[in-house]
Design a protein that fits this description.
The complex is a heterodimer of chains A (891) and B (307). Chain A is of the alpha+beta class and 891 residues long. Chain A is 52% helix and 16% strand. Among the domains of chain A are: 182 residues, no CATH class; 150 residues, no CATH class. In chain A, helix 2 runs antiparallel to helix 12, helix 10 packs antiparallel against helix 17 and helix 17 packs across helix 22. Chain B has 11 helices and 13 strands. In chain B, helix 5 crosses helix 6, helix 5 packs parallel to helix 7 and helix 7 packs parallel to helix 8. Classes of the chains: A alpha+beta (891), B alpha/beta (307). Chains A and B meet through helix 1 and helix 10 of A and helix 3 and helix 5 of B. The structure holds adenosine-5'-diphosphate and magnesium ion.
């Protein structure tokens, strides 16, 4: 038997098979690639959102004795190389070399107080100036005054301090902000430290070239002068750190609070989602390696340096993994659904092709071909159609940007194997005996008890799996890598169970309809329904395709809906209104008037906000003055809820839980005022943060206290974009947020985008597959149907009636399957619900799946309509049954 | 009425003691189609003996079991009970491998539907070579041409079935059936779809194969043209052989046909329906053994009363 010839003869069917294989292979291989890209982008984004201190690997050590000191830069560099050598593989590949990015080393002191300014200049009463040796900073600053620091010297006597002799003088350079705010200029001489005094001479003032350089996130103290309130004191203290020269390093000794740091900067884009699990483990390993490097945990902590790894990388990655798991679960669920559906369609196409080859193969079988020969030939034909197509699809998937994935590699293999094996099975069964006259027209085959038992088992397993999943929940341990296989299997099992139930049960309602149709005039409905009720064998595949297709689409719609709703809620909570203008200073009246006059602005609610000390003892609270009644009207129709305004004499207020013990509080906001606690309010989204102490008083609160109203927040209802608002307000220190921009922020994360896109692609693909399935199933049965129809034509069936009959024959099954698929899709979130944490995609915890029926119902209706239209198209475009049965032919 | 179990019991009880030397032997052959609840007895204890090199026709009403018999003989179908042996091979106890070998080298067959015999996209020559290839023989192109030539369709060799007439197709089909030099060829209404002239050609081809290659040929037919030209015609009724017609040519060249009823091995006889009708024989008859024959009389009126 010439295989190629068979392919050529049945090229139409082979082409259908090949195209389906191509599309399935492309989709299944390309989607994981796309997912992987999205995962990578997500991990990069997550790493970018946190500071360099959290992502970089910082090896720190504190010298506690003179022996442990490192006095020269070369030693630092050797150790840098030494530690780098011990970095576990993935980490080593992800860090940038020394001298690039944030990779550097440093030695810094902390908490060195200024005792006196020896040059006579005056500063604040509490000042700290520390030393930092950060050689990599040299290229990143510009000296605007004086000269860079040089070597240390000795000061024999300190004027005014006769007890101090031969003090070490360390030269430092300070940042401009220290000069401007702390008033320490070049030339200043400071006596530092209490117990071990040292003198610092300021030789120059520098400016940071690029404050946005992430390098400075490690060395923030040398770029700023920081003011810090002293707890329990009304005064504040000032802190800054000066840069010392390489020679100055030798003067930094263990008597200060000295710490060394070797920073291995992480190249965020070199971290891939796939490696992140390994990296978490490696951070842990590295931490242990460093302990061992210092001579193990029992070595003396005084004579040797004990290295410690400081990084938040593992935590960030763990966070990421928990998000990733949900994404993977969703996407694998989707991929699984798509795989099932596409394999089903492929099987259907195989059935079409084997059915086409049946006569030829039966003939050669009868003429002396062994079963092996027949099966080999048939399977070769299938392989010839499928293999190149899957390989081509796999090849095309490389056009989708992204790394190669194991799933992707497996796709062509698995698709080809399953298809060919299915073909082998079918062919072997069909040609085991050369003469196969089952006379299916006489009696419909009754299922064997074995098959019934198997089906019952599958249904029980499917339901049992779903029940287990529901009661157990999904293992949500982020450390557990990869998606939960049980989570993948349970829905598949459930879909299979639903499919079997549908197949078994669908004749029941049909029989009822048939009985009704039988009583009514018109033979076509009766005939059609009768045909529909008995065509069992060929129906299995289309049901098993349509049902999961719809279930996954519906599930996808529900998930997208839940994410979308929550995203919108998150955006509302972020802004607190359609738009918000906030400023620390007051917003001038004319600005308010301009905003109110903007086209699109419906109404504006003013509010005042401040941060106050509550009573005595460092307790602070956010205080808001706002008319809650107006505010409630402003946000009516949004997911935000606003409580009733506080009522009462004086200044009534709502306060957060932490303040409930106070019936009345005296606060200093604009003036001293007493507010009375009239109820509880823990948070006003957009206006306060959760967990903050909160006091909400009427907008005229300050006025009741004898002053006037203050406005530094505008809450806006209406359709106005951010740019317009910014222009109108015209204050560059005003913070402006709108619902729209905030929504874009939560929505446009790589993972959310990927999930939404994937569900869209899968839904479309499955719709197309379902359509193809229906048509292919019809084409397979076309020969028999033509025979039956031509027989009916001799009895007077019109062309139009023949068409209706065809549609009626398949429509009931499609409709019932669609209903089953819809039901399964609606049930899936309930089954998976506890295991699916969508909060990472929504910006908020997704509390529940709102059972929105519109989209799923539309999907089901759409799929049904498309499938029935397919049947109709087939009935219309297919070969016209013009031939009535000829005498002598058997039907 | 004979029940199914009776038939099965009978079939197993009796050891095959007759026709040891026949080329084709069917003894009490039973074939029951059991299709989920419905049982059709297609052959109910059929006996048949065919000698090597014979050319016989099998006739019978539609549904009498002719095709079933041929399917059994061709190894495409397995009888339910009884004995069927062709060229010394027992068709009931064959393994799958034997069956394959049997189909490859012992029998060849031709179906009624011209289209079913040939692969439409292969030329006549390729079609003939196909069984040889399947049997793993070297593709005998020459042999194929020889066969086609023998059957008078040499010019069809490079053509596909679509480009041939029905008669030509059937003759090519005969060539295909003969490709692996089988000992038996079986044809199920090979001329059923053909007009009389073409039928004549096809039958001629079969007869030539039978004469020149010595193949035993069994032809199921409705066609008097065919059944009247063979030496022996076997009639089948309700799954049993009921009559046989032998033909011989008398000295003056006329063909003399003599119809015989078949007496089976337990002595059962089927009387032709028109005979029994003509004498209104019903339910029972009276037999009388004479010197050289057995007389059959309708049951007398007097005896009827005593019943
Ligand atoms: N595959 C089958 N299943 C059930 N009954 C069958 C099958 N094939 C044939 N029969 C029945 O067996 C009987 C003999 O059929 P067949 O051998 O085809 O008769 P013939 O060829 O003489 O017309 C008929 O009653 C027919 O309906
Ligand atoms: Mg027949």
């Amino acid at each position: 038997m010439n295989v190629w010839q068979l392919v050529k003869v049945h090229r139409a069917a082979a082409l259908v098979l090949a195209l389906l294989a191509l599309s399935a292979s492309l989709l299944l291989a390309a989607l994981p690639r796309g997912f992987e890209t999205a995962y990578d982008e997500a991990v990069h984004g997550m790493l970018r959102d946190v500071s360099a201190q959290q992502t970089d690997l910082d090896v720190t050590a504190r010298p506690l004795s003179a022996e442990a000191l490192i006095g020269n830069p070369a030693d630092f560099e050797t150790r840098y190389a030494e530690f780098a050598k011990h970095l576990p593989r993935d980490l080593r590949e992800a860090v940038v070399p020394l001298g690039q990015g944030t990779s550097h080393f440093s030695a810094k002191t902390t908490g060195t107080p200024v005792d006196t300014r020896l040059d006579g200049s005056k500063g604040a009463s509490h000042e700290y100036v520390d030393f930092a040796w950060v050689p990599a900073a040299a290229d990143r600053v510009t000296w605007v005054e004086g000269t860079p620091p040089g070597p240390s010297s000795t000061l024999a006597r300190v004027p005014g301090h006769p007890e101090l002799r031969n003090l070490k003088v360390i030269e430092i350079g300070l940042v401009t902000e220290a000069r401007d705010k702390m008033k320490i200029d070049a030339g200043a001489v400071l006596l530092l430290g209490n117990s071990y005094p040292v003198v610092a001479r300021v030789t120059g003032i520098y400016e940071v070239d690029d404050p946005a350089d992430r390098f400075w996130e490690h060395n923030y103290e040398v770029t700023r002068a920081i003011i810090r309130p002293i707890p329990g004191d009304t005064e504040s203290e000032w802190l800054t750190t000066g840069l010392v020269s390489d020679e100055g390093l030798a003067s930094l000794d263990e008597r200060r609070e000295l710490s060394y740091s070797w920073v291995y900067g992480l190249d965020r884009d070199a971290v891939s989602a796939a490696d992140s699990g390994a990296m978490i483990a490696q951070v842990d390993d590295y931490s242990r390696i460093l302990t061992d490097l210092a001579g193990g945990p029992y070595s003396s902590m005084f004579t040797t340096l004990r290295y410690e790894l400081v990084t938040g990388l593992d935590l960030v990655l763990t966070d990421f993994l928990s998000v990733l798991r949900t994404a993977e679960t969703l996407l694998y669920l989707l991929l699984g659904g798509l795989a099932v559906v596409s394999i089903g369609v492929l099987a259907l196409a195989v059935q079409l092709l084997t059915e086409r080859m049946r006569t030829a193969l039966s003939l050669v079988r009868a003429r002396g071909a062994s079963l092996g020969q027949v099966v080999r030939t048939g399977a070769a034909v299938i392989a010839l159609a499928v293999l190149p197509a899957t390989l081509l699809g796999y090849g095309l998937s490389y056009l989708v940007p992204g790394p190669a994935t194991l799933v992707g590699h497996l796709v062509p293999v698995v698709l080809t194997l399953t298809t060919v094996l299915f073909a082998v099975g079918r062919l072997a069964l069909a040609h085991r005996r050369p003469l196969k006259d089952t006379r299916a027209d006489v009696v419909s085959a009754r299922s064997s008890p074995r098959r019934v038992a198997l089906e019952v088992l599958v249904v029980l397993l499917g339901l049992g799996g779903a029940y287990l999943l529901r009661s157990r929940g999904v293992a949500s341990d982020a450390q557990e890598l990869g998606a939960d296989p049980f989570l993948m299997l349970a829905p598949a099992g459930l879909a299979l169970a639903a499919g079997i139930l549908t197949l078994r049960l669908y004749p029941l309602p049909l029989r009822l309809f048939t009985r009704i149709a039988g009583r009514r005039p018109g033979a076509v409905p009766f005939l059609g329904l009768t045909l529909a009720a008995r065509s069992r064998g060929g129906a299995a595949l289309p049901v098993l395709i349509l049902l999961p297709a719809l279930a996954v689409s519906v599930f996808g719609a529900l998930v997208s809906g839940a994410i979308g709703d929550t995203q919108s809620r998150a955006a509302w909570q972020d802004v607190g209104a359609s738009a918000r203008v906030e400023r620390s200073a007051e917003i001038p009246e004319d600005v308010v008037a301009r905003v109110e006059a903007l086209p699109g602005v419906n109404s504006v609610v003013r509010a005042g906000k401040g941060n106050v000390q509550v009573g005595i003892g460092g307790l602070r609270a956010t205080v808001l003055s706002i008319d809650l009644k107006d505010y409630r009207e402003l946000v009516a129709g949004s997911p935000l809820t606003v409580p009733d305004p506080p009522r009462g004499l004086g200044i009534p207020a709502l306060m957060s839980k932490t303040l409930t013990p106070y019936k009345e509080l005296e606060i200093g906001w604009h003036t001293r005022m007493k507010v009375r606690n009239m109820g509880r309010l823990d948070e006003l989204p957009g206006l306060s943060f959760p967990g903050e102490n909160l006091i909400v008083m009427p907008f005229d609160g300050p006025k009741r206290a004898g002053l006037r109203t203050y406005t530094n927040i505008l809450l806006i209802d209406g359709d106005v974009d951010r740019a317009t608002l910014e222009r109108t307000v015209g204050l560059n220190d005003a913070e402006i947020e709108t619902y729209a921009t905030s929504l874009v922020d939560v929505r446009d994360t790589p993972l959310t985008g990927a999930i939404t896109l994937a569900f869209t692609i899968a839904t479309v693909a499955m719709g197309v597959y379902a359509l193809i399935a229906v048509i292919v199933a019809l084409v397979i049965g076309a020969a028999d149907r033509t025979k039956a129809l031509s027989f009916l034509r001799t009895l007077g069936l019109s062309q139009q009636q023949a068409r209706t009959l065809t549609v009626l024959e398949v429509a009931p099954l499609i409709v019932l399957t669609a209903v089953a698929g819809l039901a399964l899709g609606l049930v899936l979130p309930l089954v998976l619900g506890p295991g699916l944490d969508l909060s990472a995609f929504a910006g908020l915890a997704v509390t529940d799946f709102p059972l929105t029926f519109t989209t799923p119902a539309l999907l089901a209706a759409g799929l049904t309509a498309v499938s029935i239209l397919g049947a109709f198209a087939h009935a219309t475009a297919g070969r016209r049954v013009t031939t009535a049965l000829r005498v002598g032919e058997s039907s | 009425m004979t029940t199914l179990s009776d038939l099965e019991a009978q079939a197993t009880r009796r050891a095959p003691a007759f026709g040891e030397h026949a080329h084709i032997l069917c003894d009490n052959l039973v074939r029951i189609y059991k299709t989920e609840g419905v049982e059709v007895v297609a052959l109910q204890g059929l006996d048949l003996l065919i000698e090597k090199g014979e050319l016989i026709a099998i006739v019978g009403a539609s549904g009498s079991g002719k095709s079933t018999l041929l399917n059994v003989l061709s190894g495409l179908d397995v009888p339910t009970a009884g004995l069927a042996r062709v060229a010394g091979m027992d068709l009931l106890s064959m393994t799958a491998k034997d069956r394959l070998r049997y189909r490859r080298s012992v029998v060849g067959f031709i179906w009624q539907q011209t289209a079913r015999n040939l692969l439409p996209y292969l030329t006549a020559r390729e079609n003939v070579m196909l069984p040889m290839k399947l049997a793993g023989k070297k593709a005998g192109r020459d042999r194929a041409d020889e066969l086609l030539d023998l059957l008078g369709v040499a010019d069809c060799a490079p053509r596909r079935p679509g480009q041939m007439s029905g008669g030509e197709q059937q003759r090519v089909a005969i060539a295909v059936a003969l490709a692996n030099s089988p000992e038996v060829i079986l044809a199920d209404e090979p001329t059923g779809e053909l007009d009389s002239d073409t039928s004549e050609e096809v039958f001629g081809a079969l007869r030539r194969a039978n004469r020149e290659l010595g193949v035993t040929a069994v032809i199921v037919t409705h066609d008097p043209l065919v059944s009247e030209q063979v030496d022996r015609t076997v009639g089948i009724r309700d799954g049993r052989t009921s009559s046989e017609t032998l033909r011989r040519t008398s000295e003056d060249g006329d063909v003399i046909a003599e119809e015989y009823a078949v007496l089976d091995r337990v002595g059962r006889l089927q009387l032709p329906r028109d005979f029994t009708n003509a004498l209104a024989m019903e339910r029972r008859v009276r037999l009388e053994l004479e010197r050289d024959h057995i007389g059959v009389w309708p049951a007398g009126a007097g005896e009827e009363n005593g019943d």
